[in-house]
Write a structure and sequence with these properties.
This is X-Pro dipeptidyl-peptidase domain-containing protein. The chain is an alpha+beta fold. It is 20% helix and 31% strand. The chain folds into two domains: 345 residues, Alpha/Beta hydrolase fold, catalytic domain (Rossmann fold); 199 residues, Jelly Rolls, CATH 2.60.120.260.
Length: 579
């Protein structure tokens, strides 16, 4: 059953002036979908009605919010007006570059009709299907010349991929900045819940959130009886991490107005619920020219972006940008490269963009650029760095047994009792010559915990001679989700995250943690520092650059983690050194 939004505003046409630019605005266009639902859209272009290429932005964040780019310059963290949901691009710049900027509300959001069920399923209609209809409608309008691209970062980037996988004839190319692809990994990193999607849905911590009224429904509530839902909620609350966090408890008790987040909290394992709309599973269908761009500092987005680049067919580019991980809102820092791409593919401008290498990588530390046909751009080999006593990382294993190289432990109290993050750290000696690394790695941690589950959180830093540090990459693993997939290889572990096996308290296990991809050169005088913890600090030199909700769900009970690094338990890192 399709519900309509009774407040669908009337269409209007006006001209506004922003700086030196006059912009023709077509408000509240009704874009028909194949099932009769109308989506709402605004179109911005130069005052004349000459047909131009169109760049389409689609999301549930509300087209009215995106218009903030007309009255607010791009905001960078830690600006208090940085809003993670203003992502459709700089409207004035798009118009100035002689494109039509079309911003639409997904069904069930903003001023569009219909309902939105769950997180990635719009009332039973694939989001890509609606994108197909939207693109073809725009291409047929007299103010569009029939050539269409997609625009926007993060959620908008994911929509670009979903649209391209449907192969609408008018979509000639996509440029994807900062997209999220593997939908399970968007919220559960190594099985550890990331809280920022809550902000994007509900509007917290610097995000305006999804522009939903009463037309979003929970798929869990829609597909299960009240008795089944009650059992699911009771089971989820047996996890002390969830039960110990007030927002989790509140969401499970009162899902109304939290439906999208409610569904995510209840679905903490990968499987059909996430895979049915997973862009990575659709990537092989994309044949149009595709440009993927991602900043370093949030490893799971780099992981998904590289996987997406590897899977798509046809002409493609990958651009791995410099740290920090959060770009401006809107993403004005990526516009120059985006217009070069679209000028070539949508306007036929021979600007040399296709004469450049397929892959461009900013290497942290040395701050130089590497190019090639794939990532890593150079041959690499995984070399071990062993965790040793006295907080040392060494290329030589520990020769002594546990009787002489005693384990070390840390105890993390729940956040209800402390704001402190307990951790252990290890560091290399200062490098005497540059050491470049590119790619994915692994951590093999032999540990015992006194509970049946916990979080393993690894953070890797480049520490300079003055003690100043920069995050290089991360790794996460829920201890109960330590199972490895058959496709795992040395230095490249993959976990299915489809089941849990409670840990036997006190038992020593080898936990294999995926170290997300990175590119860094450790310069002479610098050290590689790795920290192991169960929680993240609420604020430090890295987290200060992120929105307030961009951390992981803390553990909810006192937990002691004992790490073994002796001859029988060779805890180690396997990192991708460039040969």
């Amino acid at each position: 059953m399709t519900a309509s939004y009774p407040g669908f505003p009337a269409e209007s046409v006006s001209t506004i002036t922003t700086g030196a630019t006059d912009i023709h605005v077509r408000k509240n266009l009704r874009v028909p979908m194949r099932d009769g639902v109308n989506l709402a859209a605004d179109a911005y272009h130069k005052p004349d009605d000459a047909p131009r290429p169109a760049l389409i932005a689609l999301s549930p964040y509300g087209k009215e919010l995106q218009a903030y780019s007309l009255k607010m310059p791009g905001q960078y963290r830690p600006s208090v007006t940085w809003d993670g949901c203003i992502e459709a691009g700089d409207i004035a710049r798009v118009v100035e570059e002689d494109y039509v900027h079309v911003i639409g509300d997904l069904r069930g959001s903003g001023y569009s009709e219909g309902t939105h069920s769950g997180n990635y399923n719009a009332g039973g209609v694939p989001l890509g299907e609606d994108a197909y209809d939207f693109i073809q409608w725009v291409a047929e309008q007299p103010w569009c010349d029939g050539n269409v691209g997609m625009i926007g970062t993060s959620y908008f980037g994911s929509m670009s991929v979903l649209a391209a996988a449907e192969n609408p004839p008018a979509l000639k190319a996509i440029f994807v900045n900062g997209g999220h692809y593997d939908f399970y990994e968007t919220t559960y990193h190594g099985g550890v819940m990331w809280l920022m999607p809550r902000a994007a849905r509900e509007g917290r911590g610097g995000d305006s959130g999804w522009a939903f009224t009463d037309r979003v429904t929970s798929r869990v509530l829609d597909e299960h009886t009240p008795e089944e839902v009650q059992k699911m909620v009771e089971e989820r609350l047996r996890d002390p991490d969830v039960a110990g966090w007030p927002n989790m408890f509140h969401t499970l008790m009162y899902p109304k107005h939290h439906e999208a987040w409610f569904d995510i909290v209840l679905n903490d394992l990968d499987g059909e619920w996430y895979q049915e709309r997973n862009p990575n599973e659709l990537a092989h269908q994309i044949e149009i020219p595709s440009y993927f761009q991602i900043a370093q500092g949030r490893g799971w987005t780099m992981d998904g972006t590289i996987e997406m680049f590897d899977k798509v067919s046809g002409v493609k580019k990958l651009d791995i940008l410099a740290y920090p991980p959060m770009n401006s809102r809107p993403f004005v820092d990526a516009h120059d490269e985006m217009f070069r791409w679209y000028d070539y593919w949508l306007k036929g401008v021979d600007n040399g963009v296709m004469e450049e290498p397929a892959v461009t990588v900013h290497v942290e530390g040395s701050h130089h650029t590497e190019t090639g046909d794939s990532f890593p751009t150079k041959d690499t080999e995984h070399r071990p760095l062993y965790l040793r006593p006295r907080h040392i990382l060494s290329d030589r294993p520990e020769p002594l047994s546990a009787d002489y190289a005693e384990p070390e432990a840390f105890t993390q109290l729940p956040m209800t009792l402390t704001n402190d993050t307990a951790k252990l750290s290890w560091a290399t000696p200062a490098f005497t010559e540059p050491a470049e690394m590119q790619g994915v790695g692994a951590a093999h941690i032999f540990a015992a915990i006194d509970q049946d589950d916990t979080n393993f959180i690894l953070r890797f830093f480049d520490q300079g001679p003055t003690g100043q540090r920069q995050l290089i990459t991360t790794g996460y693993l829920k201890a109960s989700q330590n199972e490895l997939s058959p496709e795992s290889t040395e230095g490249n572990p993959v976990h299915p995250h489809t089941s849990k096996t409670p840990v036997t308290p006190g038992e020593i296990n080898e936990y294999v943690i995926r170290v997300y991809p990175f590119a860094a050169t450790f310069m002479p005088g610098h050290k590689l520092v790795v920290e192991l913890s169960n929680n993240e600090p609420m604020a430090d030199e890295h987290n200060a650059l992120l929105p307030p909700d961009a951390f992981h769900l803390p553990i909810g009970r006192r937990t002691t983690t004992t790490v073994y690094r002796d001859a029988e338990h060779p805890s180690r890192l396997l990192l991708p050194y460039v040969k």
